[in-house]
């Protein structure tokens, strides 16, 4: 009986301690993403029955697959920028941020927003370390435990573009067909000569119609010219005597 009473009595001291265990709450606690995606985490402070005045988030994340793009402290908090209370180290995966709640909080209140970038394929984690603090009015730390959010990051798919289709247009020949050559119309030599050479005397015309040789016609015409020239010369000689 004494052992039972002692157990119940001891339990009465433990229950308040468990009930007052304040903590940070991170949402979402997991998910699947692709390289290049942004992962937005909302961080809240849960006082769990205590009155919390100061909150210090001390987080660790996977530097190989994640990096912190930004952190925004809730407007209702007063930021604490002193060394050891404010840090961001993407190379080693460390994020530390601290702020004070004016008048304290007794219910869950937003602390800040963390934006992570998925930079490589694999598994990335964001862990609220046990070194985080939620301080009451006596500066006693009420924060207890850790919380880890785990994310699966897939490689960015390679977009295969189909080769552009080219439409071939029939090429137009630049060679012109040979120009048609007109065959010259040949005229009879006799007709051409008759058309091009006008008759110089009635004898030539008469000879052409009677079918006498053109050479003979010219000889006769030349003799008639010489005879006329001689007759005229003879008549002028007689008059001059």
From TrEMBL:
Q: Which Gene3D superfamilies match?
A: 2.60.40.680
Query: Where are the membrane-spanning stretches?
Result: 216-235
Source organism, top-level taxon: Bacteria
Q: Where is the composition biased (Low complexity)?
A: 161-178
Keyword terms, alphabetized: Membrane, Signal, Transmembrane, Transmembrane helix
Region entry Disordered, spans: 161-199
Signal peptide bounds: 1-21
Compositional bias (Polar residues): 182-192
Identify this protein by name.
Cohesin domain-containing protein
Species, as recorded:
Candidatus Kaiserbacteria bacterium RIFCSPHIGHO2_02_FULL_55_25
């Amino acid at each position: 009986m004494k052992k039972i009473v002692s157990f119940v009595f001891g339990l009465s001291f433990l229950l308040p301690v468990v009930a007052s265990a304040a903590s940070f709450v991170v949402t979402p606690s997991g998910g699947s993403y692709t390289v290049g995606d942004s992962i937005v985490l909302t961080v809240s402070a849960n006082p769990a029955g205590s009155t919390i005045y100061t909150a210090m988030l001390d987080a660790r994340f996977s530097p190989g697959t994640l990096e912190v793009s930004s952190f925004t402290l809730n407007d209702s908090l007063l930021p604490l920028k002193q060394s050891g209370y404010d840090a961001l180290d993407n190379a080693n995966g460390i994020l530390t941020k601290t702020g004070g709640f004016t008048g304290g909080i007794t219910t869950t209140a937003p602390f800040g927003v963390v934006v992570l970038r998925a930079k490589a394929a694999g598994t990335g984690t964001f862990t609220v370390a046990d070194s985080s603090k939620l301080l009451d009015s006596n500066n006693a730390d009420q924060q207890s435990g850790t919380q880890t959010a785990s994310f699966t990051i897939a490689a960015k798919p390679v977009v295969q573009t189909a080769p552009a289709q080219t439409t071939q247009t029939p090429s137009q020949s630049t060679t012109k067909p040979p120009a048609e050559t007109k065959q010259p119309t040949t005229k009879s030599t006799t007709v051409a000569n008759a058309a091009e050479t006008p008759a110089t005397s009635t004898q030539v015309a008469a000879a052409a119609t009677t079918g006498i040789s053109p050479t003979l016609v010219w000889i006769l015409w030349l003799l008639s010219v010489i005879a006329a020239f001689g007759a005229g010369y003879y008549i002028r000689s007689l008059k001059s005597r």
